Amino acid sequence: MPSLTGSEPRTPTRVLVIDDEPQIVRALVINLKARHYEVDAAHDGATALQLAAARQPDVVVLDLGLPDMDGVEVIRGLRGWTRVPILVLSARHSSDEKVEALDAGADDYVTKPFGMDELLARLRAAVRRAEPVPGGEDGVVVDTPGFTVDLAAKKVHRGGKDVRLTPTEWHLLEVLVRNTGRLVGQKQLLQEVWGPSYGTETNYLRVYMAQLRRKLEADPAHPRHFITEPGMGYRFEK
User: Fold this and answer.
1) Is residue 84 a contact partner of residue 14, using CB atoms and an 8 Å limit?
2) pLDDT for 182-238, tens place per residue?
3) What is the number of H-type helices and E-type strands within the chain?
4) Tell me: the pLDDT tens digits for 30-58?
């Protein structure tokens, strides 16, 4: 496997690897531990859900083809109680299957076979999206008639209750809110939220904009706040 230097996390990050292929688990454990990650591994969905609850990982690497349940069920099980970043690792290549995993709450999708360097880069990006922004703009609160976005606290309130967003949903919302009233291009959004190597995965944007609309719009089918500019990008309006 290629080596990666100068990119170790500053503090130990706990990774939960969920895959039933021993050689892939072994390769991931070796490479992650060499970069000072703490690693737990599970070979089936039931064990994975138990380990996640017990060990509270900072990021999950999940294969969809598990022996006891589909990986999408694991994603839904995790999303019932945690916002932990989930990086899907799968041999399934179809767009529909990728969208299904993203729609269930995954943060990114890597197809097998994969390069270890690319996987680790995407894992680091997923962890970064879940971290607080240092030196954030304290006190920046954006009010709309239906919900409130607190950029400093990384929280959204609707109807007097917190709205649970995944790290990727929050990052997308944050980029749009910080550019209120301005068109943000598809490529810019992809690169700001997922990283510089992204620029053409527009299905990611469609899935996550649909998620934000379902969670925050009064009428998701006729959005007032999250506006699509066909073929160009998206705009947030208060």
Assistant:
1) no
2) 899 999 999 889 888 888 899 999 999 999 999 999 999 999 999 999 989 999 999
3) 8, 12
4) 999 999 999 999 999 999 999 999 999 99
7 is a domain residue: no
Going from the C-alpha of 86 to that of each of 63, 105, 140, 218, 238, the distances in angstroms are 10, 8, 28, 28, 30
Quick check: bond before 145 cis, omega within 30? no
Q: What CATH number is associated with residue 104?
A: 3.40.50.2300
54 and 118 fall within a common domain: yes
Distance CA 160, CA 158 (A): 5
Task: Give how many domains the chain has, as a whole number.
Answer: 2
**pTM of structure:** 0.73
Residues 171 and 206 in one domain: yes
Host domain of residue 74: 14-130
